[in-house]
Amino acid sequence: MVKNNNNSQYELVIVGAGVVGMGAAIAAQKQGVKKILIVERHQACTGASIRNFGFITITGLRQKIMQERSLRSREIWLDIIKKAKITINHRGLYLIAQHKESIPVLEEYLKIDPRSTVRLLSKKEMESHHPLFKKNKNFGGLHSTDEVRIEPRLAVPAVAKYLESNGIDFLWKEEVLDFTHKEIVTQKRKIQFKKLIMAPGNHLKGLGRNVFEQRKIQSSKLHMLRVMPEKKFKLPGGIMADLTLMRYPGYENLPSKKKLDKVIQKTCRAELDNGIHVIIVQGKDGSLIIGDSHQYTHDTHYPFENEKIDTLILNKFEQILPIGQYNVLERWIGEYPSGKKDYLDHWLDKNICIANVTTGIGMSTGFAFAEDVVQKLYQ
Question: Does 302 lie in the same domain as 194?
């Protein structure tokens, strides 16, 4: 915690206590930076970093830099999970093909994904992995063993607590209102720095607003739900299905996808219109986290939820995973910044950077992206 004085000085100040902000602190500490401060305008991280699936995903990401960052982020997560005593809920991913036209797409994807930990399952093999897979419509699908699922609303605070206990200062409930080339200004104090990283997440109307407007960064709004099945069971991994092939960039240029596109456009028009692709993961208590949809704006989203979107998500969920009766426990709005490029690292000078993951993979790649920013900052 920062002492209440007006003359604090830090080697590195980070604005934003989400995955990218804390990832930058982790990377800087590894490089030997001694005096680090993270400033967060809320009482805790409340943005995109805790509103997601907590699913560290590798499969289906764009090859080269995006997938490399996901694999590196996974390494960093596994290290911090152990140190901060974070629970892993499950590992692995099953992408269930409910249209036969998805299989050629998945076969082509395997030719460009260099990992030995992902393979194609036949219908019979898929059904052997879980009894529920015998009840749904499937033509087989992909299985990856690399993915890891944690509970973000517990994991992100646990990372902050661990970092604070290991010499990194936090300043909660203070907003950075302005900055110069050598100091930040909050509503309570001025703090001097040698280097500054601003990691605002989806807070696009504060510091860096002009940059976000110039780069046409939008805010993405997601519908998310948590349900509790009446009959308890354990998922063998995270679940995705055909609609994922329409949204994840690793599949977008595969030759067979054009045929699948035509089929999905006929059978899932409403889902496509609302940016829906269903991901299902499981919490420690047996509940299932389900989502999501995507709506975009350059302005502030209206705070009203359309029940039709939740209904579309739940109907698709029931087709993918026919679990019988369940109760909806929670609904919430997820968020993340979205741009034409996957990442934004905008350098105001050699010592000041605005850093954001500008697509929905902050949990999966944010730690490695932050590490790359820190390496450039101290090169």
Answer: no
